[in-house]
Amino acid sequence: MAVKKLPVAKAINESLRTALEADPKVVVMGEDVGKLGGVFRVTDGLQKDFGEDRVIDTPLAESGIIGTAIGLALRGYRPVAEIQFDGFVFPAYDQIVTQLAKMYARSLGKIKVPVVIRIPYGGGIGAVEHHSESPEALFAHVAGLKVVSPSNSSDAYWMLQQAIQSDDPVIFFEPKRRYWEKGEVNTDAIPDPLHKASVAREGTDATLVAYGPMVRTCLEAAAAAAEEGKSLEVVDLRSVSPIDFDTVQASAEKTGRLIVVHEAPVFFGAGAEIAARITERSFYHLEAPVLRVGGFHSPYPPARVEEDYLPGLDRVLDAVDRSLAY
């Protein structure tokens, strides 16, 4: 059994390496992904081992990166395009939502576009404007795109493998402030389905649902709550589109309370869809309304105050207390 302890960034690197070795049609492309190995060194060493035709340094032109990736996919390749930072994706938004997301339906299923777009996202690294966004809800709202976000090294490795193998376009959001956190990766394992949520911690009093960078925050909140005699279940959503509502529903009906946590602003965030859907499905099983914890409806702030913006332990535990008070 091949078990390694890897940081999330290294797990993604290993996953890309495995995909490049397994399929000559897989190409990696993006700004500084080659010689530099990416600004976070996620693609370090890949160009050296696979050459400039497989690991391609592109111009600083996100629309061109995604447009080229679509063209490559139409010619039978499986491009993995990196957007260097979350806030840089918007010049490519038109290509993604009007071309990439629509090609399969437009061709009545005859054309497949197996493009993966890797996007480091979220805050917590002290970055400047346009480097700490959480735009996942914008893409989840667009039919034709799959949107996923791993929270740990094992999921980072396996979910990227599954995304590359998918015939549908996948937006792969990487929680950049978790890049250096280590976890076990079993490269011989049979992974869960790409869009299946997982129960990261069992509990009985309330359910916390999160994905990406907030899963660790929720696990820390559950550990802190346990010291006060409260038992919190933590569900790692893993996929934002589609959403595994069945797993969330089962947990919410088990505990009777649900709190959804994400870094993105609460207003029109993924938590709103989850809250509405679970309320519809489980109204008579709930002991309290579904609550949401997230960022504020404001532009991402300067680094010195980002800890006040980001949902942390106290905001999550406050929501738990409010839920339990009903």
Automatic annotation (TrEMBL):
Superkingdom of this entry's organism?
Bacteria
Transketolase-like pyrimidine-binding domain location is 6-181
Any Pfam family: Transket_pyr
Recorded hits in InterPro entries, A to Z, give: THDP-binding, Transketo_C/PFOR_II, Transketolase-like_Pyr-bd, Transketolase_C
Q: Which cofactor is essential here?
A: thiamine diphosphate
Gene3D superfamilies, from UniProt? 3.40.50.920, 3.40.50.970
Q: Which GO terms describe its molecular function?
A: magnesium ion binding; oxidoreductase activity
Q: Which UniProt keywords apply?
A: Oxidoreductase, Thiamine pyrophosphate
Its recorded name reads: Alpha-ketoacid dehydrogenase subunit beta
Per the UniProt record, the source organism is: Streptomyces spectabilis
